[in-house]
Amino acid sequence: MTALVHIRPLDPLKDAELIHPWVTHPKAAFWMMQDAKLQDVEREYMAIAANPHHDAFIGLVDGEPAFLMERYDPSRVELVGLYEARPGDVGMHFLVAPTDTPVHGFTRTVITAVMAELFADPATARVVVEPDVRNKAVHALNEAVGFVPEREIQKPEKKALLSFCTRAQFETAVGAAA
């Protein structure tokens, strides 16, 4: 699938209405916001915007909003004390907007674009993820772009699969052109 992907900062007040149906959709169960009201989404993303170690973005595919991406410092947010952080570690979450007409390969295009965006920063040495252990679909996607699972960890809200992907692993998995 060839698509033009653009990633822009999320504006919590302007974008909450856009992402509210995404994060509350049944397919976003692992996002853990099923019962969130619009104001809850605004509050959550205002808190992220105020945090110097956590950023949120909207991904556009061919000009249309299509995914949510979060980047965070795992030594200060999400994974504090749960693993030995290294300089250059960057944490990541992504969520593809729900659709009634899925396009084969779309989610793989999205995660590849997200990873390319993270590795576009020369300071990023490896990307860290911690999806729910039950989220088999995202485990397969993560492995497709080079993630290697390390171990299960217990977070306050879930049992997670801690996985890592270095720049070299990403390039090998998706090709040096990425």
Automatic annotation (TrEMBL):
GO terms for molecular function: acyltransferase activity. Residues 8-55 form the Acyltransferase MbtK/IucB-like conserved domain. Pathway: Siderophore biosynthesis; mycobactin biosynthesis. Pfam families: Acetyltransf_8. Keywords: Acyltransferase, Transferase. PANTHER family: LYSINE N-ACYLTRANSFERASE C17G9.06C-RELATED (PTHR31438:SF1). Acyltransferase required for the direct transfer of medium- to long-chain fatty acyl moieties from a carrier protein (MbtL) on to the epsilon-amino group of lysine residue in the mycobactin core. This is Lysine N-acyltransferase MbtK. It comes from Streptomyces litmocidini. The lineage of its organism: Bacteria, Bacillati, Actinomycetota, Actinomycetes, Kitasatosporales.
